[in-house]
């Protein structure tokens, strides 16, 4: 698969995320992982790279389904507010006085889902290695 196809797919995904009008496009984009087939199909994947199954049995999850899932799980990312959501002041991923790589790694080991969420809130994209 060509790099041009991958870049085009990334632009398409980014545009569809923007069309969903989240409060923080970058945070939502960090939660969307995908693969592109040689024919140009965008396949939503989990953090390990395995294809996600959508609502219809046996079909791959669509980007729209993934965005609905994110909106249900993290409604603050799709709030009505025009400003960015307040970040947790103790978020160890946010640059500032509470930034701590030690706390990041401990959280990643003990609560990887929360670590991924807080990292996305800070504008970072981490992948779980479970």
Residue-averaged pLDDT: 82
Question: How many helical elements?
Answer: 5
Give the low-pLDDT segments: none
What coarse outline follows from CA principal-axis ratios?
A: globular
Sheet with the most strands: spatial strand order: 1-2
SSE-based structural type: mainly alpha
Could you give the order of the helices and strands?
HHEEHHH
What percentage of the residues does DSSP assign to strands (E)? 5-15%
End-to-end distance, in Å? Answer: 27 Å
**How many E-type strands?**
2
- Cα-based radius of gyration, to the nearest Å: 16 Å
Name the helicity range.
40-55%
Biggest β-sheet, characterized? 2 strands, antiparallel
How would you characterize this protein structure?
With 130 residues, this protein is mostly helical. The chain contains 5 helices and 2 strands. A hairpin with a 5-residue loop joins β1 and β2. α4 packs across α5.
Keyword list:
130 residues, mainly alpha, two-stranded antiparallel sheet, 5 helices, 42% helix
Blueprint of the fold:
Elements: H1 3-19, H2 25-30, E1 33-36, E2 42-45, H3 63-73, H4 101-110, H5 112-121
Antiparallel strand pairs: 1-2
Summary of the model, kept short:
The chain has 130 residues and is mainly α.
